[in-house]
Fold this sequence. Notes:
With 381 residues, chain A is of the alpha/beta class. Chain A is 30% helix and 8% strand. The interface between A and B is large, with 90 and 90 residues.
Amino acid sequence: MSKSSKSDLITALDRREFLKYCSTIAAVLGLGPSHVKSVAAALISGPRPPVLWLHFAECTGCSESFLRANKPSIDSILLETISLEYHETLLAGAGQTVTDTLQAAADKYDGQFFCVVEGAIPTAENGIYGMIGGKTMLSIAKTICPKAKAILAFGNCSSFGGIAAAAPNPTGAKGVREALGITTVPVVKIPGCPPNPINLVGTIVEFLLKGQLPPCDEYGRPLFAYSKSVHHNCPYEEHTTEAKERCKHDEGCKGGKCKNNCTEVLFNDESFCMKAGHPCIACSEPEFWDKMSPFYQKPEGEGKGQEGRKGQEGRKGQGVGKGQTYEFDPKWIINKSVPVRRPAGMSPDRQKGIPRNFNLKGQKVRQSNKSYQIDVSRPAK
Amino acid sequence: MYPDQQNKKPGNNSMTKIQIDPVTRIEGHLKLEAEVTSGQVVDAWSSGTLYRGIETILKGRIPEEAWLYTQRLCGVCTYVHGSTSVRCVENAYQTVIPDNARIIRNLLMGGQFIHDHLIHFYQLHLMDWVDVVSATTADASATAALAKRISPNAAAIDFSAVKTRLQAFVGSGQLGIFANGYWGHSAYLLSPEENLLLMAHYLETLKKQIVVAKMHAIWGGKNPHLQSLRVGGVTCGAEITTQRIGDFKSYLQDIKQFIDTIYIPDAMLLAKKYSDWGAIGGSQNFLAFGEFPTANSKPESPLFPQGVIMGGQAVTVATVDTSQITEHVRHSWYSGSADLAPSAGATQPGYTTYDTGDKYSWLKAPRYAGKSMEVGPLARMLVAFGKGTPKVVSAMNSFFTETGANIQTFNSTVGRMSARALETQVIVDAMWFWVNALSTSSSSINTQSSKSTCQGVGFNEAPRGALGHWIDIAGGKIGNYQIISPTGWNCSPRCGNDIPGPLEKALVGTPVADAAKPLEILRTVHSFDPCLACAVHVLDPHNDSTYIVRAT
C-alpha cells in the first residue's frame, strides 16, 4: 500500500484525534513531545507490519483487552497500522482454510512478522491437552514461532504460564519461551491478567520508530511499562492524603511486589484495581497465582493463613520461590523506612534506583530518569 | 479449504464428511465434524480440543479467592464466573449481600451482556450473513438512503469513506482477517448496499464496545477481568458517587442509542432477509436459571425468570429442579466406565484418540432428566415469554410484527440471533432503573463470617446461558469445585445414552451448498455463541463416569 493512500486514510479519520493518540503513545514510551510526529509517521508510513496472533491455552481475555485499545483506536490498528494475518477470534474463514493461511503467512513473511502469542502451551504428554487442526499447540508453536522477527508474549499465560500453570499445573503449561526453549528469536513479555493494550501497541510502535525492540528487564518485560512497581505511582500510596481511606495495603495489596504501569495509564481510560476498592494481586508477576496468595492478607508474613497448601513449597508468606530471582529486594518498598539493600560494587545509577537496562542485543542502554508532561488536550503542531 | 473426504460412499446419496478445525469466530478451541448427504447435514459431532484443569487448580485454595481464579476461565465471558463464584461461597456461608452490591452486580452483568452480544453479532456472527467483498461494490448514497429508511434516528455515517476504507484495505492485497472468507457464496442473500451498511456497523461496533467496557470499568476497575467483587458484596463503594453515577449514565445513554438505532434494526434486517433460516437449527429442550435478581434473598424475582421447556412446547414452562442435572463422560476424554451411577474413585483426564464412535471431546455431557438442553438467549426469551414477563413479551411481539416471524420460527438459528438482540435491548432499558436505585450513602459489602465446613451453589445466567458453580469447603479450604457452563450444555458431545448435544442436534438438516465452503454450518454453530474455555475444565475426583451435581 502506498504511503499517500495511507495518509489519505488517516485524513479520513480525525487527524486531531490521531495526533492525540500519538502523543499518548509517545508518553507511554517515555519519549518527549518532539517524538509525536515520528510516532505518527511510523504508524502511517510503509507497509503494515504483519502480525500472526496465536491462541493456545488461553481464555481470550488478552485479545479482548487488545480490543479495548483506544490509542490508536482498535479499528485503525486493525485496518491501518498492522496487517493482522491470523487471529482465530476474528477470521472470516474457518478450518483447513485458516490452517493453510497460517502456514502461508509464516512462509511469506519469514523473519518479518510479529508473532503475538496468547495463552500458555500445554507440554505434558507431548502436548495432547491442547490441539488445533489436529496438531498440538506445542508443535504449532515450534513450527511458526521460530520464523518470527519477534515473539510478543501478550498476557501472563504466554509470558509465565498463567493460570493454567498454577499448582499443580495439570497439563504441564508453560510460557512460550520456556516451552520452546527458543534462543534465536527475541521474546518480549507483556504480562498482566490481562495486560494493558497500550503496552502491546507501545512495543510495536517503538519497533516501528527505532527498528529495534524496547529495552527490557531480566524477564523480557519492556521497561517503559514494567520498570516501576504498581505501588510507586499509586495515588493512594501512603504519603498521600487519600491513603487513609483508599489504600489497600491492609487488605493485602501486592502493588509493592508487582511491576506494571496500571496506575499511570489506567485501564479503559477509567480506573484500576485499587480505585475499584480491591487490592492488587500482582498479575504481571511470574507465578502470582501461587506466590501472591493469600490475596487478602498483608504481605511479609503478617496475619493469618501462612500455611501453604499441602505439598506446595514456596507458597508460605510472600517468599521468593525456588529458581526465581528478582532485580530488587523482594520486600519491595511497602514501608519506606526499610532500606532497599543493594549488592556492593553497584554503579551510582543503580544505587539511585535506576534499573539496569539491556536491550535484546545484550547492549546496555541507559534509561533516562526524566519524565515528560504531555498536554494531550491540544494536538501537536 | 478442502473437506476431509473419508467414507465417501458410492451411489446417488454419497456422503461427504466435513471437518472444521479450528472453528473460528468463537471463543476457544472447537472442532466440528459433520456428515453431509444430498446437500444436507445428517449427523454432527462437536469437540472441545483444549483442557486446562481449573478445578484441579482450585483444590486446597481459599474459598474467598475462588472468584479471582474462576474469572480466568474466560475473558470473553469475563465477570460471569467470578460472579457465580462469589454467589456460590455466599450461599455456603449463608451471607446476604446489601442492596448496593446487588445493583452493582446487576449493572456489571448487564454491561457484560451488552458488550458480549454486540461483539458477537458484529465481530463473530456477521460475516456468516454479510459478504465483505460485495460491500466494496455498493453505491454509497443508496446505502445512506437505506440506512435512513431502516433507522431514521441513527447517527449519520459517511458510507463513502467506509467504502473507500474497505476498498483500500481489500485492494492492498493484505486482507488480513477478511482473507479466505467464503465471499460470493450462493447463500449470501444481501444486496451490496445492505452489506456495506452492516460492515459500516461492524466498524462502528469496534469503537462503541470500548464505551461499554468503560461502563464496566467504572465499577470494576478494569475490563476484561474486573477486580471489585468479594464474598459479601462489591469493593467499589468509594466509586458510588454522584460523579461516577453520572459518568455511567452518560455512557449508558450512548449505548442505548446504539442498541436502539443500530443493533436492533440490523438484527431485524437479517431476520427478514434470512427468514428461511427460521426453519433451520432449532432445539427441543431449553433451560434457564434466571438472572438479574430484584431482591437480595429468596424469592429473588429475577428480571429473566428461571424455567424449563421440554419438547419445544414454548408456552409450557416448568420449574427448574437442579437435582435432575447429571454429567456424562462416556464420549469424553475422561476415564471411567459407561455406568451411570456415581461411584467412588478418581476420574482422571484420559486422552485416547479422536474417535466419534468412542471418545471425542474434552467437554463432558451435562443432561437434565436425561435430556440435552439448550441454554442461552433463546432459552431465556422463550422461558420469559412463556411465563409472561411483560418486557420480554412486548419486545418479542413487536419483533414478530416487524419481521413476520412467530414463536415457532423463533426456535431456530436466526431466532437465536434475534433473541440475543432482543434481550440486549430489554437489559439496557432495565439498567437505567437499576443505576437510579444506587445509594451513595449505603454500604456495598457485608463482612461475613466464614465457615470451615459447608457446601454451596451459585447460579447465573451468563450471556451464553445457564451457569452453575458447586463448592465443597472442608477445613476452611476448597475441597471440591465443580462448574457446568453454558457451552458445556450447548456444545456437549453424546452422553452415555448416545443422545447428541444441542449443537450436534441443531445442525441436522442444515443445507450445505458446497462442502468445501461450509458457510451454512458456521451460521448455526455461531448462533450458539460457543465459548470453549468455559466449557472444558471439569475434573471430578470423586466419581466415575457420571456424577449427580448436588443442589443445596
